[in-house]
Each structure stands twice: as structure tokens, then as C-alpha cells.
Amino acid sequence: MLQIKRAGHSTLTTPDIERMIDYFTRIVGLSLAAREKNRAILATKSGVEAIVLERGSAVEAPRLSFQVAPGSDLGEVAARLKKAGLASERRTDITPGIGEALAFKDPKGTTLEIFSDFAFSPEDPNFTGVMPLKFGHIAYQCPDVEGVVKFYCDTLGFRVSDWRSDFFAFLRCSRDHHTVNFLRNAQVAIHHVAFEVRDWSDIKRACDLLARNGIKLTWGPIRHIIGHNIAVYHKNPDGVTIEFFCDMDQMFDEELGFFEPRPWHQDRPQRPKVWGDETPSNWWGPMSHHGTAAPKPAGEPAATTVQPRAPAHAPARRRDAQKKSPSKGRPPR
Ligand SMILES: [Fe+2]
User: Fold this and answer.
1) How far is CA 158 from CA 37, 173, 269, in A?
2) pLDDT reported for residue 107
3) What is the pTM of this model?
């Protein structure tokens, strides 16, 4: 088994690479670290590569990179993959920052690029856009969520943070509650791409900046229940849902087995679990998706503690929920 430490970058294909470079630099606030004829490498202002754009006819996320421990011998990593039945290919052209990587496909067909060492991008003096701290997570839709989760845990060393019923999985490879999500659906597709920002004031600044540029929020600001991150969502010019978030649950100590306690948690302690199908998508903020029952406003006496918590404590109903269609009437998480 490998032990992934963090997500590197997501490769996104786009029919209009110039438009997407403009969006990711001017709105999201990434730096254009490198530009080639048919691709562009975008990094955070701190110099960590986050997104690779490639010219393509469809809007997809065909590749995702992950870092293993610095100094790891990729030959030894390849041998471990081979032992797990995976043929990997050594690549040297991933990004300017990643000299060498091993590439292989996960069960849903996404190419994973495993690297151990990387170089920071050149400094960018332009402070523009939202300027996220990092590429936080990517959520994919795929038909066999359980199979993909098993692969990520058994082969890549991910841990399951939470499930929503049996159709939406949240996996961590670090302290962060989730770095990848898998949502059951018939077709493999991007569900959303998320960037971490510093705090609530950066969320507010992001909302103002999006509004100034005529980009509507599609959801939020909210605080989720699963993961407990504060989040806002919008669609980028290619129609991909982009999330900015902060305050995500942190598993500081795997041996303790609970997320760092927070006053807004539903459980004490808050451990990884299967959340009932009826769990509201968010703790506060507009419940804008598919008529999911919202918690009562906090100002209403009966709702301040008991009613909002009831769904969150509901027993898992994974098998019952399996019979339901995942594509209808579902909240996005
Ligand atoms: Fe997300």
C-alpha cells in the first residue's frame, strides 16, 4: 500500500483554454506558472502547483496527482503497485515542478500521477483574485463508489472520514477531513473542485469578488454538516462547480480517532461515521438543494439543539438507501 500525503494538482481539459486561464488567474487568484501551446500550469500564490489546464473538446478531469513522502524511491513505489496488480508508467513531463511521476489508472479511469518531490513555482508579485491557500479537494461522480473507495483505501492509504448513506464518500489522506469525494452516479464526471481559503473573511471577500465579476453563487455561504467546512459554490466558465471553503474538520491524531472538537459538531466526539440519508446538507445557510429538510432557524426555541441534531444522529441506513436512485432528489453532499 502507498501512503499518499496530499493532493498535488488536478488536470482539467477545456475547449477554451484562454478563457479558463483568465478565470483561474483573475478570479480564483492562481498564478500562471507556465504556458505551453496546449496547456497551462497554475499555482497558488505560495508557489504550489494546483491546476493544469489542457486544451480538449470535453470538460473533464482526466488526471489527478498525489504526493507520497519526499525522497521516496519511485522504483520501489512502482514495485509496490505491481504487487497490487497495477502496471504504472514512469513519466517526466507532468509539470515544470514535478520532475518524475508514476502514472496509472484508478478503477473509474482517472489517471493518477504519483510523485515524491517537487519544485515550487516562481514567485508571482501580482496579488489578485481570491488567492486560495491550496487545491483542497476534488469530488468525482462514478458508478461504483464502494469499489473506488476500497481502491483508494487499500492501495493509496486513504481513510474514510464519512459516508452520506451509501452514495457519497469523503476520504482523507492528511489531517483534512476530505481530499477526494466520490458520489454515485451512472457516468464518471467532475462533481466539483474545491480550494481552501484562509478563513471566513476570505469567503466574504470571494463572494464580493465573484459578484463584482457578475458570477452568481450557486450555493452558500453555508456550513456543511459532513466535514463542517464553511463553503460557497459557483460555476466557472466551463460550467464546473467550484467551491471555496474554510474551517474543514481536522483529524489531528489518527490514534485518537476523532476530529478536533468544535462547538458546532453534532457528536461529542465527532468520529468518522455513516450519516443518515436524511442528514441535512448544511448546518446553517440556505438549503437550496432538492428540498432537503432544513434545520429550524436557531432562533426558534425548540430548534436550537434538539431538532437540528435529530437527523444527524439518525442511524445509518445504507442498505435501505441503496435501492433509491442517487441521481434524483439528492443534495450535493
Ligand atoms: Fe467540496
Assistant:
1) 35, 5, 21
2) 97
3) 0.87
